[in-house]
Design goal:
Chains A, B: It comes from Sorangium cellulosum (strain So ce56) (Polyangium cellulosum (strain So ce56)). Chains A, B: Belongs to the acyl-CoA dehydrogenase family. The structure is a homodimer. By secondary structure, the first copy, chain A, is of the alpha+beta class. Chain A has a domain of 142 residues. The first copy, chain A, is 55% helix and 11% strand. Chain A has 19 helices and twelve strands. The first copy, chain A, has a five-stranded mixed barrel. Chain A has a two-stranded antiparallel ribbon with strand order 1-2. The longest helix of chain A has 37 residues. The radius of gyration of chain A is 25 Å and the shape is globular. The interface between A and B is large, with 113 and 113 residues.
Chain lengths: 619, 619
């Protein structure tokens, strides 16, 4: 590939679709104009959408391939990021795209979280690896905002939200991956109230870089004498360069980059081994003032990070789809199936071939369905902000839906992102396997989304082990009620009735299977739960997505009625037709899986538990 | 990763499983000892299996990672393969592993094709990219063996089967990928009977290399005045270096490497753009003596190549599974689910966790099922060789099953290989995403298997458009009868009855859907066929695999009865337990999909055909 191609933006998003979700389907307008979003209206939101997309394409997009090809390296104990990353970081913070939803107290614009997710989708999709540095910085700052002392907030927040310093989250250790409770990093309290930190953390994204003058690590560690497991963990602020009380930089802290990983993808993001306190001179301070609060504090960041991973998934998948669509419209190959016997029939664009259309519509429905789910989650979060202190019931309902949907968004979006990328490659054919097109990189980048920030099985266990029963099952019940209401309102829909019937059956399957899983806890069939958890998460995600796609189709069909005839309404008509067909396709081809999965889980097959460990292979 | 790790063999195969398939399930012995396999018995076959595996691990395996990292490059118009490839090539041909099933006429060992597939699995699995050079050479030689003139056979075969010269297949052109009939490469007959070849071929695997003194290209081209489409194509032998009548090398032919592709994987395999006749001095000779026979000739090679791609899939998937299994037994993380509330409970190997067991058993059942399908196909091919001229009915039945199963083996194995690699990465967690372990490379290598040698949709259309109706449907009927007989014989099996019931339902679903597809051809619903083809291929593959896994389980359960008690029988008992659980798992979790897919296809959803092209997106 030529240098010019390596530096070309390949990112694409469909802004019409974004606007449909924000304003037609999820009516974000209803939350705008009142506190805390007094300063925001539809125009302001729309302007940010347009400009952020332009920024993503102009600044982040052209660095995606080069970041992948060049990757990160260590030079003199410091990580060097790919060429152009530093300039892009500076432009990002100059333009203010990371502070759209940051509080004005910290120089942010105080916008809705929903808008933040849209901006994030653009930035992730244009350059998933590059956007990890600001993404994790944002998450680390949020933890300090919510749990830090006033002094910590003063010292760190403007500098972190503003891009002067970056942030990381340091959980994983060589012996403690999914099993965070096994962390051995230790913290010993000093006379001045600071802590000496000692231990090794691995897989630390952005653990070092050359973008900022300082890196603020949030480190999980165990204070001497603390209980074992997750309950004994505390969270510490451990800057790479020590910070004086006036915010100026002191000497280097004892944090050493041991190594960086060589990975399948996201090569532009440095994944570091960090050694804290090798020379017994690593000082950290407790986040807040109370020890052993590390896990709840970290979970605040994890929740945001999990939504971000869902955004990474949909952003990459969406661009993979749109690139495949462009190729399918351009590339001519073969004749129409209706003329397959005539060797002289004209060659047609591959989008004319039924299997290519099937792949495209499959990708479209998944991408748009997942995005709808994320926007729904984000809107619930904004509703919490609006209703808090005004309408407790509404706030609780919305918070409950956020909690319930986070594992779905993280796991389903990331798993599907990889599959959509696979389909996109297949749509391209051989060309998709080459580095001349972006889809093979998307596919490699996407694989990690199913792994980090809690593997997708951990998400599934969070769903079935915690979220289903949360508040006595009230959140699940509210979700199921919402779906049931939609079914009831639309079961005689002139165009969608058959699809709504599928939705009803999927609803029954999910409700029934949820009951079955809860009964396993009670009947002492505990090991069956993790065996079924991933499948259940998939069922529930597809129910949610089927619902939201059908809801979108109802809205689209209604909107079509009001369109002017002929050319004036042609563009909108095409768009709404797309919404309709995506819903029809998903309802006929994907939604039935919930019912099938319920049948499979109903057999309670335990072969995977029963097989002896030495029976897997004779090697 | 250290240099030592990059040069370490990571390939693994389960030889006990191979022996089970060869001798216990598919009773290859019954075909040995009679012509053309007179010289072969169980011991000879077993020895080749052991030694070929050792060779694959010792010689091919250590070059897999380095081939990926270093890749191929062009130097002075010549492709340079990764370090070590030339030595490995020489050792391969010295050891004779590529001539196991080559006729003694050409210095081969005349062994069964089934054994060849086992050897190929080892070589592909140890180094998929490296093995493409000898694999394509073998295929090209086979075409010359079957269609070439006696002079061509004399000139080329010993040199190609013996590794002195390599071979390629040159079909694809920039405007003619899946649509081979659009090929523009031209052939103009000269007075001496040779042809001037002119055109550009792309995606030519092994199109150039530094392993052999000559490369023999088989080039599809159109003779002046030939009809359009595939029917006007002829096949030519076009050597890189001209060959004198005595077999000595002449001057260079006019074949120029224009470029090599940069790909997602199989980086050790050179993927070339070849320009033939840029200076109007490229001479080729017709394969055989009759023009316009290019497609049937190429199809002979394609058939073999498609089986090879199926082998690539299962080989890589199998090693991914076995590497994940090893990691799951070694890696300790978390406590047993039965002690999840106790932070001090001992850490356990991750194979103790239900979801890890589920992933492992899922991979095991798919890998072993696909391998069984390939061995079945290969055995049918050997049976054709044995019965030809002795028992026409048996020969025809076996040839029919080969024809029917080729698209299943190519498409299902390759699609599943990518999925199994995905699951293997997930089993490793973060470690699987790094280049410290081989699974991420396996995953990248595997993606192309679904694309080349005819995309998997082309395989699906070959199945539903040609193979289902072949001979009035006799091959499909024979296949379905074989399954039905197995069901009948085992429907009251004491352990497997419930699984056999699943098999019966899958059988009904496949038979019914086949009828439905055939009716679409007749009812003028032609565009529905390609829309359903991939799903049907999956249904039929899973029926076949479910059957073969259950057949294996019946055999395993019977064999277990005869085992000595205690330690003496422990290893075999564990192995047979594995066969049993793989079948139970597949029957309960995968086999029902055939029934579900039949239900989905029964709706005849046409949304992908109906959606207007401009409704896919507003970009």
């Amino acid at each position: 590939m030529s240098n010019a191609q390596t530096h070309q933006n390949r990112y694409k998003a469909d802004l019409r679709e974004i606007r449909f979700l924000l304003f037609e389907q999820f009516r974000l307008d209803e939350l705008l104009g009142s506190a805390p979003y007094d300063a925001w209206g539809r125009d302001e939101v729309g302007m940010v959408v347009d400009e952020a997309y332009k920024f993503a394409c102009d600044v982040f997009g052209p660095l995606n391939a080069v970041g992948d090809r060049v990757g990160c390296r260590i030079e003199g104990g410091q990580v060097k990021t790919p060429p152009g990353f530093k300039e892009a970081w500076d432009k990002l913070y100059e333009a203010g795209w990371k502070s759209v939803s940051v509080s004005p107290t910290y120089d942010g614009q105080g916008g809705p979280f929903t808008l933040y997710t849209v901006v994030e989708e653009f930035l992730c999709g244009a350059n998933a690896a590059l956007n990890m540095y600001p993404g994790l910085t944002y998450g680390a700052a949020e933890v300090i905002e919510h749990f830090g002392t006033p002094r910590q907030r003063d010292l760190f927040l403007k500098r972190m939200y503003g891009g002067q310093w970056s942030g990381t989250m340091c959980l994983t250790e060589p012996q403690a991956g999914s099993d965070v409770g096994s962390s051995r990093t230790s913290a010993v309290k000093q006379k001045d109230g600071k802590y000496l930190i000692r231990g090794t953390k691995i897989f630390i994204s952005g653990g070092d870089q050359d973008l900022t003058e300082n890196v603020v690590h949030l480190v999980l560690a165990r204070v001497e004498g603390a209980p074992p497991g997750t309950k004994g963990l505390s969270l510490f602020v451990v800057p790479k360069i020590r910070v004086n009380d006036d915010g100026s930089l002191g000497g280097p802290n004892d944090v050493v980059v041991g190594n960086i990983e060589h990975k399948m993808g996201i090569n532009g993001s440095s994944t570091c081994v960090l050694n804290f306190g090798e020379s017994d001179a690593c000082l950290g301070e407790l986040v807040g003032t109370v020890e052993h609060q590390g896990m709840p504090q970290m979970f605040r960041m994890m929740n945001g990070a999990r939504i971000s991973v869902g955004l990474q998934g949909v952003s990459v998948a969406s661009s993979a789809y749109l690139n495949a669509l462009e190729y399918a419209k351009d590339r001519k190959q073969g004749s129409s199936i209706l003329q397959w016997k005539d060797a002289t029939a004209p060659r047609v664009p591959v989008i004319d071939h039924p299997d290519v259309r099937r792949m495209l519509l499959d990708m479209k429905s998944r991408v748009e369905g997942i995005r709808a789910l994320i926007i729904k989650l984000a809107r619930h979060q904004d509703a919490v902000a609006v209703y808090q202190g005004k309408d407790d019931r509404a706030a609780a309902y919305n918070q409950g839906q956020v909690d319930l949907l986070v594992p779905l968004v993280k796991a389903y979006s990331s798993d599907q992102a990889f599959r959509v990328c696979e389909t996109a490659i297949q749509t391209f054919g051989g060309a998709g396997y080459t580095k001349d097109y972006p889809v093979e990189q998307y596919c490699r980048d996407a694989k990690v989304f199913s792994i980090y920030e809690g593997t997708n099985h951990i998400q599934a266990m969070d769903l079935v082990g915690r979220k289903l029963g949360q508040g006595g099952g009230v959140n699940l019940q509210a979700f199921l009620n919402d779906v049931a209401e939609f079914v009831k309102a639309n079961e005689k829909h002139p165009v969608l009735a058959a699809s709504i019937k599928e939705l009803r059956e999927a609803h029954e399957a999910v409700a029934g299977t949820a009951m079955r899983l809860l009964s396993w806890f009670q009947l002492g069939k505990m090991p069956m739960v993790p065996l079924a958890a991933n499948r259940f998460l998939e069922m529930m995600s597809e129910l949610a997505i089927g619902w939201l796609l059908l809801d979108g189709a109802v809205i689209a069909l209604k909107a079509m009625e009001g369109l002017p005839a002929g050319d004036a309404g042609a563009k909108d008509r095409a768009f709404y037709e797309g919404k309709k067909h995506a819903a029809l396709y998903f309802a006929a081809n994907v939604l039935p899986h919930a019912k099938f999965s319920a049948e499979i889980l109903g057999r309670e097959d335990s072969s995977a538990l029963d097989i002896p460990a030495d029976a897997f292979a004779t090697v």
